[in-house]
């Protein structure tokens, strides 16, 4: 197991233990305080825990070689997992939004803000520390799974932090002329939190759906790949080249077709092409640690198009 793999496994185990603690803390305090905001936070942590257990399994699959059942490896499992994470979190958030809206229409709900505020402070501190730690692990291991995990901890930390602020406000309102508004504070807080965090899982769904559908990666990534390939091929005899970069989770797949004339083809023996492949692979891997690459040299442009569809 490489150092990056060890970091990823360690980070995912940290998330599992962290979520188990947050679930227990959230559900106990939700019962004590009768707060739906805390219940939402606890349910969010429970979902995060279940997904973290699945993430640990998927992360191990990603490093397995191809086999008869999956001839191109297991890279597609990563965007599928992240898509599932985003969908589940978005669905729970939308459910909480409608539940709180209904509560607002029915006169709100009473809560024990004094108890709840201590939960919110402890949960927010723990989640933000874990978000920072997971972000560091994600940067060191180049793991999209950990990147999404860090965002989930950040969402959870922001939810808990906002709950702490709101419950402090509720304590103030309970001793003021605005005491009648206190029952509306908890559902109003949930609505505001959902509206604030919902764009994050929606963006996660969009990004990973695009990868599953095989859409081209970001323009900046394509330009980076094109610059590297162009620099490697520049001193070599060729007429043109065609790139097809694809991003699947952490894996970058680059297909390079080099078009040469029949005269130039005489200089391209198998050993020479293998040397080109090695040089190009090394340059690309410096920028993209998780890389798969094909380099094909051809005199016939039709083969460039036949790689994805029949030529006319």
From TrEMBL:
GO BP terms, alphabetized: intracellular zinc ion homeostasis
Transmembrane segments: 12-32, 38-59, 80-101, 113-132, 153-172, 184-202
Record's keyword terms, sorted: Membrane, Transmembrane, Transmembrane helix, Transport
Compartments in which it is found: Membrane
CC annotations in GO: plasma membrane
InterPro entries, alphabetized: Cation_efflux, Cation_efflux_TM, Cation_efflux_TMD_sf, CDF_Transporter
Keyword Ribosomal protein: no
Residue ranges of domain Cation efflux protein transmembrane in the record: 13-212
Gene3D superfamilies: Cation efflux protein transmembrane domain
Domain of life: Bacteria
Recorded topology in the membrane: Multi-pass membrane protein
GO molecular function: cadmium ion transmembrane transporter activity; ferrous iron transmembrane transporter activity; zinc efflux antiporter activity
Chief location of this protein within or outside the cell: membrane
Family: Belongs to the cation diffusion facilitator (CDF) transporter (TC 2.A.4) family.
NCBIfam families: CDF
This protein's name: Cation diffusion facilitator family transporter
Species of origin: Leptothoe spongobia TAU-MAC 1115
Species classification: Bacteria, Bacillati, Cyanobacteriota, Cyanophyceae, Nodosilineales
């Amino acid at each position: 197991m490489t150092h990056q793999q060890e970091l990823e496994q360690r980070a995912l185990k940290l998330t599992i233990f962290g979520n188990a603690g947050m679930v227990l803390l959230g559900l106990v305090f939700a019962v004590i305080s009768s707060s739906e905001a805390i219940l939402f936070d606890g349910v969010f942590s429970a979902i995060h825990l279940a997904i973290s257990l699945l993430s640990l399994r998927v992360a191990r699959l990603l490093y397995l070689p191809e086999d008869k059942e999956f001839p191109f490896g297991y890279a597609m499992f990563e965007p599928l997992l992240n898509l599932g994470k985003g969908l589940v979190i978005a669905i729970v958030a939308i459910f909480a939004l409608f539940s709180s809206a209904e509560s607002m229409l029915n006169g709100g709900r009473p809560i024990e803000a004094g108890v709840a505020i201590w939960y919110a402070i402890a949960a927010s501190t723990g989640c933000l520390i874990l978000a920072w730690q997971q972000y560091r692990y994600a940067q060191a291991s180049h793991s999209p799974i950990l990147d999404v995990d860090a965002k989930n901890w950040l969402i959870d930390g922001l939810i808990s932090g906002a709950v702490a602020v709101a419950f402090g406000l509720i304590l103030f309102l309970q001793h003021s002329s605005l005491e009648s508004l206190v029952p509306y504070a908890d559902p109003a807080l949930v609505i505001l939190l959902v509206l604030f965090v919902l764009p994050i899982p929606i963006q996660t769904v969009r990004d990973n759906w695009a990868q599953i559908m095989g859409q081209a990666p970001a323009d900046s990534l394509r330009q980076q790949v094109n610059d590297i390939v162009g620099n490697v091929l520049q001193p070599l005899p060729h007429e043109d080249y065609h790139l097809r970069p694809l991003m699947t989770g952490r894996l970058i797949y680059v297909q390079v077709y080099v078009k040469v004339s029949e005269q130039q083809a005489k200089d391209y023996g198998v050993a020479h092409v293998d040397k080109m492949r090695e040089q190009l692979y090394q340059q690309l891997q410096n920028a993209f640690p998780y890389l798969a690459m094909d380099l094909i040299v051809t005199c016939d442009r039709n083969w460039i198009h036949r790689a994805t569809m029949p030529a006319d």
